[in-house]
């Protein structure tokens, strides 16, 4: 069994040649489904408050979900055995299709799950007028 030396929180793990760089970005998994009425995005954000998350629509058709999980305060006397939870900033962007109502986007946070609902609008089919060909 090898001993791991270093500060787990700063990312400076050492076990022989094993090194882990500090993480400044948090990986956020997001599901995107389309229903008859809307596009629905669900993001798992355990431990985050709604004030720590931003939902924006930029350039008219790009949904942007961002935020940050702060690093837990450390006490010099703490002895860490394992650090698996990620911290840092996150940013995800999704290009929305043409059939959405960006002015009616809604977001809700419940039990660490962010749900963003982007209502759909009916895409009006262009009027097609048949032209009669003369002899």
Q: Describe it for me?
A:
The structure is a single chain. The protein contains no helices and seven strands. The chain is mainly β and 135 residues long.
If you compute it from the alpha carbons, what radius of gyration comes out, rounded to the nearest whole angstrom?
23 Å
Average pLDDT confidence is: 82
Please identify the oligomeric state: single chain
Number of helices: 0
Shape: rod-shaped
- N-to-C span: 92 Å
Poorly predicted ranges: 1-23
Structural class: mainly beta
Query: Helicity, in percent?
Result: under 10%
Number of strands: 7
| Share in β-strands | 25-35%
**What order do the SSEs take from the amino end to the carboxyl end, as H and E?**
EEEEEEE
What's this, in brief?
It contains no helices and seven strands.
Please supply descriptive tags for the structure shown above.
single chain, 135 residues, mainly beta, 34% strand, disordered N terminus
Write the layout of secondary structure elements.
Layout: E1 30-34, E2 38-44, E3 53-58, E4 62-69, E5 88-95, E6 106-110, E7 113-119
Antiparallel strand pairs: 1-2, 2-7, 3-4, 4-5, 6-7
């Amino acid at each position: 069994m090898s001993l791991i030396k270093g500060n787990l929180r700063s990312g400076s793990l050492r076990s022989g040649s094993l090194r882990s760089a500090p993480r400044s970005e948090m990986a956020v998994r997001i599901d995107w489904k389309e229903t008859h009425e809307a596009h629905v995005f669900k993001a798992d954000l355990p431990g985050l408050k709604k004030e720590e998350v931003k939902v924006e629509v930029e350039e008219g058709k790009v949904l942007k979900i961002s935020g940050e999980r702060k690093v837990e305060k450390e006490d010099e006397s703490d002895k860490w055995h394992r650090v698996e939870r990620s911290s840092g900033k996150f940013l995800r962007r999704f290009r929305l299709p043409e059939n959405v109502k960006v002015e009616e986007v809604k977001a809700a946070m419940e039990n660490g799950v962010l749900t963003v609902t982007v209502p759909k609008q009916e895409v009006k089919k262009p009027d097609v007028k048949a032209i009669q060909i003369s002899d």
